[in-house]
Write a structure and sequence with these properties.
Blueprint (H helix, E strand, L loop, with lengths): L1 E3 L4 E15 L11 E10 L3 E2 L8 E3 L5 E5 L5 E3 L5 E2 L6 E5 L5 E5 L1
Parallel strand pairs: 1-9, 6-10
Antiparallel strand pairs: 1-4, 2-3, 2-5, 5-8, 6-7, 9-10
Length: 107
Amino acid sequence: MENNTGLYFTAAEFGEGSSSCTMWNEYGTWVLDYATWSCAKTSVKPHTTTGTWYDVDGFTIPNRSYNVRWGGGSYSYVGPNVYTRIHDYDRATCNQNSSGAVFCTIT
């Protein structure tokens, strides 16, 4: 996960830890399918990454909505504190435009 914004993100490992995470895409695709799993959370500082080999199953922005897309597809709105699930082979790159909106692309 690459955070190119001035915001803190939360990354999660699903099925681990004692926290609870709600995701909008349980199977890690663009298909809408809400689910809540146990999770272990990690903070991702502004203008950083989670590292090349750090396993991240999903991400969100605390108390803030964002937009996400797969590849060159259309962006979908994701509400505050709702996680986007990604697979081990996926990379999420998130940027912020001049009006503060966040756009994440999964490749």
